[in-house]
Every structure is written in structure tokens, then in C-alpha cells.
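Response to reviewer comment R2.3. The reviewers asked that we include at least one raw input/output pair. We reproduce the pair for L-serine dehydratase here without editing.
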Amino acid sequence: MRILGIRDIIGPIMIGPSSSHTAGALRIASMCRRLLAGEPRQVAFHLYGSFAHTYRGHGTDKALVAGLLGMAADDERIRDSFEIAKQQDLSFTFEPRPNEPMPHPNTVCIEVTDSTGSHVSMRGESIGGGAAVITRINGIDVRLTGEYHSIVVKQRDVAGVLAHIATCLSVFDVNIATTKLFRERKGELAYTIMQTDDEIDERVAASIAKHPDIFDVRIVKSDRASEAVAPVKGNAENAGGFAAEFTPQEAAARFEELDFACGAEMLAYCEHEGIAISEAMCRRERCMLAADGVAVDNTRRYLERVLSVMRESATAPIASPVRSMGGLIGGEAAALSKLEAKTDSGTANACIADPMLARATTYAMAVLETNASMGRIVAAPTAGSSGVVPAMLLAAQDKHGSSDEELINALANAAAIGYLITRNATVAGAEGGCQAEVGAASAMAASAACELFGGTPAQCFAAASNALCGLMGLVCDPVAGLVEAPCQKRNATGVANAIVSAQIALAGIGNLANFDETVEAMRRVGNSLPFELRESALGGLAATPSACAFCEGCMN
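Raw output as returned:
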């Protein structure tokens, strides 16, 4: 199982509109670029499942091209990637194949010819929250995530090759974390993929390539290297805080205790230690990073950056409304802000919501406006649900005076809830419907609000359960395949649901089903939803006459 950290749940910092369809697609293409011998010149993208149905509306096409051009997920040039590709002599085509089955609903196959004349074919899957995995290279099934530094070796499957690769890495003092050999038949073409704890020098690749049974060597640097305020290698003993007294080996052992498999385990730990959920999650993060020899103090600086991006994405459209890429939304946050102003001045037609809910509604709508216009946002846990958590946090700060430090702690709490949902269910709309996106975000915001306003860990989990119950079964039906309608209003609904859910929990009202049972119920409900109601733009509101008329008009 992939180990998830705070950056995987509160992040990536990215250009909208979809973490799985935009950021995840870009990550696939970025890994493809790293496997090339030269600059990409010709590329064909074959799109499957949800990718095939919604690739234009979600910016998947622009993101795939941007990834091959070497752009990061938060590069504002992504929206202009087609024009930049033409300037750099990169030709590209897209072929949707919606009726061909694939194991994962967000799948793309890429065929690339580079400037050296070499050809690479690969298959990638966007697995939610901006994460991705390469599952096939040149016809051979593999597994490459890009999360760690990796070396990909194309070889003949004969004795001695693996030992040669390991020896070369050892000579350059590179520690091997994992090794996998992928092949179709014994003795024929194979790929060895080694993940390493250390960055791999180009001299290592040159040394490995000298073996006569090795055809090609490619270094795939960790995607962490491109993250805003990325973790940096350091001495764990000097990292400070909870993990300061641990060596990497001790931190790895301690991480086993802190790698909570479910809410019950995390709650039991919090109650035993007398700490908040946010602190439990931060302790887990520190041990996870320290075990990898990474300086752990960067996590709070990362969350400071997250809060800054969230604030900008929630406030900019109020002052300067932006029309979305698809043209369905734009200006709603400014209209809501004007209604708030009427309330403050006591004029007629004032808003009926209380001040915090009114402000949270405005902020949630604003973030989705930023997202839909391909602006910079923070996926929390996804881009399609990116308005819920910041709306609650920033409204609490505006109306109740919460400090930035308190909001950062609340973000860590939200990350814990999102981590448990991701681990035991899903946060991808293509897998579980909108209950997995806005529903998960609402649960995260509810728990965070509960801790922010003095709730116990048990009350935080109760609040998260309440929020999931309130949005159980919510379908994902983006009109015209755009992350605009009904997504924007559902984010506002999500933050309202979170505030109500936290209020109920803070009153000491419990639940019949606990948090883990609720997450499992959500998972089962998501699995039972038909494909048309899971981000395909083929059902629900997307299939209404008005939505279909708009879709037909934009495709002509």
C-alpha cells in the first residue's frame, strides 16, 4: 500500500480544475518525459474511461501536453500549453476510446517520438488527489509512481544484470529502497525499477549502461522535488520536535505504531497520549519523513504556503470576478459578497445565513471560480472539492478571530480525516462519486472545525461521520464534463454541511455508526453507483436537456 502523508491529502498545490484529471494527468506525462532520450516531438494520447468522456472539460488535454513540456502542477502556463507546444515543435493528437475497458477509470496511453528518433509507449493511471502510477512501458507491465527517486533499466533478462545495477548504485553510495523486475517471459526483454532513498547522479546511469545486456537507463527524479516547500534531505536527529530523538531506523519502527489503519486506532492513540488529532497526524508525518532521512520541519512551512494559496484562491475572485474556462460560472462569489455587505449595512434583501456561514459560502464559491478558470488552488483532498476546507477555515478566522497557527493545526486535523478516507475508501469522483470528493472534504472540514472550536478527538470523528452521512450517495455529474456546475454550489453545500456537522458533535450528540463504519458504508455506496454517476458527465444533472444542449453547443 502506498504510504500517504499530509502533502498527499492537503495538496498538491496546482492549477485547476481537477486533481485527478488535471494534476494527475500532468504527473503521468511528466514521468513519460523523464523516460525520453531527447525532447518530445510527436505524441499521441489515447484516453480511456472517465478521461475519454471529460478530457476537454477537465483540462486533461492541456495538462498532458504541459507535463510533456516539463511544467509543474502549479505552473500557470498550463492553460496555454497547446500554444507553447507549437512554439517548441511538439505535435500532438488525442484519441478518446470510451468503450475500451481498462482496470482504472482514469487511464491514458501515450505514444511519443523524441528528438533522437527514439519511440516510447507507456500507460498511466491517475489514482486520485493528483497521484499517478505508470503501469506499462513499451508493452511490459510495470509499476512506477514517481513518488521516490527511481532508476528504470531496460535490459535483457539474464543472470548478473541485477547484481551489476546494485553494485553501481553501491559504488556511488545510493541506498536502494525497493527493487522490482518486470518481464513478459524469462530470458527476454525486461525492466528493472529501483526506488532509492537518495537522488541518483547521471554518472550512475552511465556506469550501469556499460553492461552489454543493458539497453537503456533512465533516471526518474521524485515528484517531491517539484512541490512547493518540498521536503529536503537532512539529519533526522537535528530535525526538532517529536522525532528529534530518533534515528531513521528508530523513526521507521515508531512509524509502525503511528501508521493508523483506521479511525479507531487514531482515536485510541489520541486519548492515550492526551493529544489532538492534529498532533497525532503531525507525529506520524515527522516519523514518516525522519525514517526517510528527510528534515521534518518543512511540513509546517508547507502548510503555511498552503494557507497562503487557499487565501488567495478564496479572495481574488471576490475583488476581480473571473469567467470559467467552460463559461458556466463566474462572478458568483462577488454577488454573494455584495449580499453580505447588505446584511452588514442593514439594508433590504439581506442574506439569511449567519455571518460565518455566509462568509464560508462566499469563499467556497470563490475557490471553485478560481479552480474553473485554471487558477492556482490547493486540492483538499481534490481540486473539485477544493473550496470546502479553506472556506471553513478562512470564515472562522474572519468571524471568530482564529489565528494562522490555529488554522495550520486545523489543516493537519483535516489531513488526518482525509488520509483515513483515502486509505479505506476513495476521494476520487471517478471511483466513488461526489460523496468521495465534496463528501470527504466536508468530513475533513467538519473535524477541523470541531478541533478549532475546542472539540475532543472523539467529537472530531463524530463530526466527520455526520458530514459523510449528510452527503452519502452524492453523485458526480459535471455538466459538459466541466468542474463548474454543479460542482461550485456543491462546495458551498459541503461547507454548510461541515459547519452543521461540527455543531451537532460539539453538543455531545453521538452517532449510531462510528467513523470507520461510515467510511466503509461510503465505500460500498460508491462501488454501487453506476458509471454514469461517477464523473462521466453521462448522468444526473449532466444528462438533463439544458445540460445536453450546452454540451452540444460547445462541441460544435
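Residues 299-555 form one domain. Residues 33 and 362 are 40 Å apart (CA to CA). Further pairs are available on request from the corresponding author.
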